[in-house]
C-alpha cells in the first residue's frame, strides 16, 4: 500500500489516501504506479489522473501541469489545477477552447504567448476528456 | 422647534451610516476568513514543492539564473503591494509611509531604483508624488487567485532575467493577526532557498534515495520548479496582503460603528433634553396663563 497526497496552490485535494494503484499523465506518456515503485521524480502534462483506493473504489480527475514524486512512502502530486468531473461545465470549456483556437489562427502570437495558448488548450481538452473516460 | 427636527435628522443619518459600517464589517469578516483559509490551503503545496527542491539539491548541484546573486547590487526593482480600495484604516498609508522611509534611507546606495505598483492606492499616491513606475497593475480587488499571482510573478521574473535589475524587492503588509498588520520588505529575487526554514517533519526528506529516477533531466525539472516556487512565494505574499487588508478594514469598520453608536447616544441625550425643556416652558406658560386669569 502507498499513500497519495495531491495538492494544488489553492487547495489540498487529496491527503493521505491509501492507494492500490495510480495512473498519471507524465510528460513522456501515461505512467502507471503500483506499490513498491522505485523512487521517481517526473513532470506531468495536462491529462487525466486515475487512482484506485484500497477499498477498490476508483476516482479520476483532470490535472494540468505539475510534478509527481514517488518515494517508498507514497506519491506526492503537485498540480497547478485539479478538477473533478462534477466541477466541469462543458459549455464554458468549449467556448474557451474556441476562443483560444481562434486566437491561434487569427493573431500573430510570439513564442511565449503561443505556447501559453497551447497550454490552455491542452488543459481544457484534458478536462473535456475527463467526461468521456470510463473507469 | 427647528433644532429638534434637525437633531432628529442627524440621528437618522448617523444610524444609517452605522448600519453601513456594520454591514461592511461583516463582509470584511467573511472575506478575512476566506483569505485565511486560502493561506492555510496553499501551505501544503508550498511545503511539498520546497521539499522536492531540497530533495533534488541533495543529489544535484542546483544552479539557476533565478538563484545566483549578482556580484554587485546596484539596480533594484521595488514592488509595492497595496489594495485597490480604501476605507481600511492605516493599511495603505502604512505602506506609503514605509516606502517613503525606505526610499529616504536606501536610495543612496543604489544607482537605480525603479518601482512597480500593484493595487490602485499605491499607484495613485506615488503618481501624486511624482514617482514614476515601470509598471502598474490594478484591479486586484476581486479574489486573489494563483493564476493572477503567477502572472504578477512572471512580470517580475521577466524584469529580473532581462538583466535590468540586480534584485527584486517586495513591500507588502504582513498578516500578523486579524487586528494587526505590519509592512515588511522582502527580497524576492534572487531566490534564496536557505532562508526557507524547514519544519521538523520536513527535514527528514521522506524516503529520498540517491538512485532517484528523473524524467526529464534534473536540471530541467529544477528549472521549472524554481519558477513555480517563486510564483508560490508571490502568491503567499498576495494572500497575506489580502488577509491583512480585510483585517484592517474589519477593525476600521468596527471602530466606525462604535463611534456612530456614541454619536447617536449623545444626540439622543441632547434631543431629550431639548424636548423636556420645551415641555417645561410650555407648562409654565399654561400655568402662568391660568394664574393670570384668576
Chart the SSEs and their pairings.
The complex is a heterodimer of chains A (135) and B (294).
Chain A: E1 2-7, E2 12-26, E3 29-33, E4 40-44, E5 47-53, E6 58-70, E7 74-83, H1 90-106, H2 111-132
Parallel strand pairs in A: 1-7
Antiparallel strand pairs in A: 1-2, 2-3, 2-5, 4-6, 5-6, 6-7
Chain B: H1 2-59, E1 75-81, H2 91-106, E2 112-118, H3 120-128, E3 133-137, H4 146-161, E4 167-177, E5 180-189, E6 213-215, H5 218-293
Parallel strand pairs in B: 1-2, 1-4, 2-3
Antiparallel strand pairs in B: 4-5
Helix pairs in contact in B: 1-5, 4-5
Polypeptide structure, described:
The complex is a heterodimer of chains A (about 140) and B (about 290). By secondary structure, chain A is of the alpha+beta class. Chain A has helices at about 90-105, 110-130, and strands at about 1-5, 10-25, 30-35, 40-45, 45-55, 60-70, 75-85. Helix content of chain A is about 30%, strand content about 45%. Chain A has a five-stranded mixed barrel. Chain B is of the alpha/beta class and about 290 residues long. Chain B has one domain (about 25-195, about 210-250): Pyruvate Kinase, Chain: A, domain 1, CATH 3.40.1380. A five-stranded mixed sheet of chain B has the order 3-2-1-4-5, sandwiched between helices. The two termini of chain B are about 30 Å apart. The interface of A and B includes residues 73, 76 and 78 of A. Strand 4 (about 40-45) of chain A pairs parallel with strand 6 of chain B.
Amino acid at each position: 500500500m502507498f499513500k497519495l497526497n495531491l495538492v494544488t496552490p489553492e487547495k489540498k485535494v487529496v491527503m493521505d489516501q491509501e492507494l492500490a494503484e495510480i495512473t498519471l499523465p507524465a510528460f513522456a506518456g501515461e505512467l502507471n504506479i503500483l506499490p513498491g515503485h522505485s523512487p521517481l521524480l517526473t513532470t506531468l502534462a495536462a491529462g487525466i489522473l486515475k487512482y484506485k483506493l484500497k477499498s477498490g473504489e476508483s476516482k479520476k480527475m483532470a490535472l494540468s501541469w505539475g510534478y509527481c514524486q514517488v518515494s517508498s512512502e507514497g506519491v506526492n502530486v503537485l498540480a497547478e489545477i485539479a478538477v473533478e468531473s462534477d466541477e466541469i461545465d462543458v459549455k464554458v470549456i468549449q467556448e474557451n477552447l474556441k476562443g483560444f483556437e481562434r486566437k491561434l489562427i487569427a493573431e500573430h502570437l510570439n513564442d511565449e504567448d503561443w505556447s501559453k495558448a497551447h497550454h490552455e488548450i491542452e488543459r481544457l481538452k484534458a478536462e473535456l476528456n475527463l467526461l468521456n473516460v470510463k473507469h | 422647534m427647528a433644532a429638534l427636527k434637525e437633531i432628529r435628522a442627524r440621528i437618522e443619518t448617523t444610524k444609517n451610516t452605522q448600519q453601513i459600517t456594520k454591514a461592511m464589517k461583516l463582509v470584511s469578516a467573511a472575506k478575512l476568513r476566506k483569505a485565511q483559509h486560502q493561506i492555510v490551503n496553499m501551505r501544503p503545496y508550498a511545503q511539498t514543492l520546497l521539499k522536492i527542491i531540497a530533495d533534488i539539491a541533495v543529489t544535484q548541484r542546483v544552479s539557476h539564473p533565478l538563484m545566483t546573486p549578482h556580484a554587485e547590487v546596484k539596480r533594484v526593482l521595488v514592488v509595492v503591494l497595496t489594495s485597490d480600495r480604501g476605507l481600511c484604516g492605516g493599511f495603505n498609508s502604512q505602506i506609503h509611509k514605509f516606502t517613503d522611509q525606505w526610499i529616504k534611507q536606501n536610495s543612496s546606495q543604489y544607482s537605480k531604483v525603479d518601482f512597480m505598483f500593484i493595487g490602485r492606492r499605491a499607484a495613485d499616491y506615488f503618481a501624486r508624488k511624482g514617482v514614476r513606475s515601470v509598471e502598474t497593475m490594478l484591479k486586484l480587488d476581486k479574489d486573489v487567485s494563483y493564476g493572477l499571482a503567477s502572472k504578477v510573478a512572471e512580470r517580475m521574473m521577466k524584469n529580473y532575467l532581462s538583466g535590468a535589475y540586480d534584485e527584486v524587492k517586495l513591500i507588502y503588509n504582513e498578516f500578523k493577526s486579524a487586528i494587526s498588520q505590519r509592512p515588511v520588505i522582502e527580497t524576492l529575487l534572487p531566490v534564496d532557498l536557505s532562508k526557507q526554514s524547514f519544519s521538523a517533519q520536513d527535514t527528514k526528506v521522506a524516503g529520498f534515495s540517491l538512485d532517484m529516477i528523473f524524467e526529464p533531466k534534473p536540471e530541467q525539472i529544477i528549472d521549472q520548479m524554481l519558477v513555480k516556487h517563486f510564483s508560490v512565494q508571490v502568491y503567499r505574499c498576495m494572500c497575506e496582503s489580502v488577509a491583512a487588508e480585510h483585517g484592517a478594514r474589519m477593525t476600521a469598520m468596527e471602530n466606525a460603528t462604535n463611534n456612530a453608536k456614541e454619536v447617536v447616544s449623545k444626540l439622543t441625550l441632547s434631543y431629550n433634553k431639548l424636548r423636556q425643556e420645551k415641555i417645561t416652558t410650555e407648562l409654565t406658560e399654561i400655568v402662568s396663563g391660568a394664574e393670570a386669569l384668576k
